[in-house]
Write a structure and sequence with these properties.
Radius of gyration: 14 Å
Largest sheet: 4 strands, mixed
Oligomer: single chain
Number of helices: 4
Order of helices and strands: EHEEEHHH
Length: 133
């Protein structure tokens, strides 16, 4: 499951930042398993063997991957992934695909149409990593 942190270009959203935001909501901490920073660094969140908290009704059978960004300077939804993020996100999803070859790669909005997240079409972009039926 691909997400964005829904922050403007100058706002940071590291795994530690998101952990704090989620704790402020009363959660047990960061709901995502991975966070991809603008410079391409992949930070761990919840361990993959621990159920995430990132999409209602699907947490028990998904891995949450969040990229830093998703809003433009005016606060409007936008695919703000840097070239480094695009590369790191693909590499991470390729690794997860090797570990979970039958898993679908979808964006948050594919399972919750009220969400804009991740502000791009993950199903199409990663069509080559989708399981063959």
């Amino acid at each position: 499951m691909v997400h964005c942190s829904a922050v403007r270009p100058w706002k940071e959203s590291s795994a530690a930042d998101i952990d704090g935001w989620h704790k402020d909501k009363g959660w047990k901490g960061i709901g995502y398993h991975y966070v991809v920073r603008r410079d391409g660094t992949v930070e761990p969140g919840r361990p993959p063997e621990v159920i995430g908290s990132h999409v209602v009704g699907h947490n028990a059978h998904s891995i949450g991957v969040c990229y830093e960004g998703g809003l433009d300077a005016l606060g409007q939804k936008a695919d703000t992934r840097t070239p480094e993020q695009r590369k790191a996100l693909r590499t991470l999803l390729e690794e997860l695909h090797r570990q979970y070859p039958r898993a679908l790669i979808v964006g948050h909005h594919d399972l919750n149409p009220q969400k804009d997240c991740p502000c791009f079409d993950a199903v199409s972009e990663y069509s080559d990593l989708q399981p063959t039926l």
